[in-house]
């Protein structure tokens, strides 16, 4: 199936409440995200949108908004959250699926995600010009950072996540992705005094 045929397939009346991706021409149906998933998406998108507004560069999309990663055979995926720099005005955004990849793609793990499938998706992003990928695991409360050179960093909830050279000046606490508005950020452990 091509990306154009996939667009038509996704917009059939019987598919309006279902989610799909196209992986090398094959349609893959996705499970509906959980409530915790949705909360994590919002927290990530909020942190990235706050950054975009502060630096006045780029924009954030969520809700599995499609991007064509490969052609012939076609691959159309929807990152859970993505950061783009290909448009400066709302009217300049692609009206359907983007053809320019995001500079950052964020995937939030589901409890039923298979490791092999997840690793394959990370590889697809990186080999198709996505500069940075965050894999967020809300059960383990950690973020794995993937780069095109396949150098990985695994950050726990008490660590700072930065945008490296891709999002210069971006920084947030990993634990903020897993918080509700009424929760407070845990205080860092007090420093250990030097031994006498």
UniProtKB/TrEMBL annotation:
<dbReference type="InterPro" id="IPR012296">
    <property type="entry name" value="Nuclease_put_TT1808"/>
</dbReference>
<dbReference type="InterPro" id="IPR011335">
    <property type="entry name" value="Restrct_endonuc-II-like"/>
</dbReference>
<feature type="domain" description="Putative restriction endonuclease">
    <location>
        <begin position="8"/>
        <end position="174"/>
    </location>
</feature>
<dbReference type="InterPro" id="IPR008538">
    <property type="entry name" value="Uma2"/>
</dbReference>
<dbReference type="Pfam" id="PF05685">
    <property type="entry name" value="Uma2"/>
</dbReference>
<protein>
    <recommendedName>
        <fullName>Putative restriction endonuclease domain-containing protein</fullName>
    </recommendedName>
</protein>
């Amino acid at each position: 199936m091509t990306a154009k045929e996939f667009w038509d397939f996704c917009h059939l009346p019987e598919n309006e409440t279902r989610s799909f991706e196209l992986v090398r021409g094959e349609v893959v149906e996705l499970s509906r995200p959980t409530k915790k998933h949705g909360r994590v998406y919002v927290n990530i998108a909020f942190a990235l949108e706050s950054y975009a507004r502060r630096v006045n560069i780029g924009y954030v999309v969520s809700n599995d908004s499609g991007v064509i990663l490969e052609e012939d055979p076609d691959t159309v995926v929807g990152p859970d959250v993505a950061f783009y720099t290909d448009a400066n005005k709302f009217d300049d955004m692609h009206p359907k699926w983007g053809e320019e990849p995001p500079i950052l793609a964020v995937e939030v793990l589901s409890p039923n995600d298979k490791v092999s499938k997840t690793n394959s998706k990370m590889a697809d992003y990186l080999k198709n010009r996505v500069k940075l990928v965050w894999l967020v695991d809300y059960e383990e409360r950690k973020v794995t950072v993937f780069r095109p050179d396949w150098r990985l960093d695994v950050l726990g909830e008490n660590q700072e996540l930065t945008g490296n050279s891709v999002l210069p000046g971006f920084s947030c606490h990993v634990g903020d992705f897993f918080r509700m508005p009424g929760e407070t950020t845990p205080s860092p452990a007090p420093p250990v005094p030097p031994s006498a």
